[in-house]
Design brief:
The chain has about 230 residues and is of the alpha/beta class. It has two domains: about 5-15 and about 85-215, Rossmann fold, CATH 3.40.50; about 20-85, Orthogonal Bundle (DNA polymerase, domain 1), CATH 1.10.150. It has ten helices and eight strands. The strands form two sheets. A six-stranded parallel β-sheet has the order 5-4-1-6-7-8, with helices on both faces. Helix 3 (about 50-60) packs across helix 4 (about 65-85) and helix 5 (about 90-100) packs parallel to helix 10 (about 210-215).
Length: about 230
Amino acid sequence: MKYRLVVFDFDGTLADSEESIMYAMECVARDFVIADVDRARVKQGIGLPLQQGLEMALGLDPVKVPVAVELYRQYYNDVAFDKTRLFPGVKQSLERLVRNGVLLAVASSKSTHGLEAMMRFLGLFDFFSFVAGAQDVERPKPAPDMVKLALKVLDVRPQDCLVVGDTVFDIEMGQRASADTCAVTYGHHSVDELRSFNPTFMIDSFAHIVSIADDGDGHCLLAQGSQ
């Protein structure tokens, strides 16, 4: 077994929540009389704390952000459980990883309560030995705090850990924790953006995670940043 622990991002990595995120952003923009929402800018901010994502996506005055955060959460919660879906192969791959003795963790910028509720709804929660949300660390992504906390709680060395995510914030978080990293290209950041951070692996299908975690086999993948 190449890795004892795999730490996953949630939105854009395990689950497709883009429709819910875009809906909530568009509703907040309407409330603040913002005519157009640039979907590309919204996607660039996914993975950061919600406050930063709203500032980036809508160009809000920081004074208005706390109200926008509360509005966003209301709108998001109205639709998230109906519109969020797992990406293909996620549940089956997680089952295989656990069966192979790999520890699993989630590191997300979502609120801890909301993250755990969605994981339970999607039938994922019991696969994971550790779950960290925005409230669990002092410094959010791309700081390494969530990965370092998982390593400490689960007693795993950084060299035995793989961090998997769809944004450059996930890749930087893993690198700053001295872990290997795997970028998934079906999420919110582009292949070129992800490649610029030189992840250890890049994949276009979640199912490849099983072979990577087992023996570090990256020969069948899109690209290997540092292989």
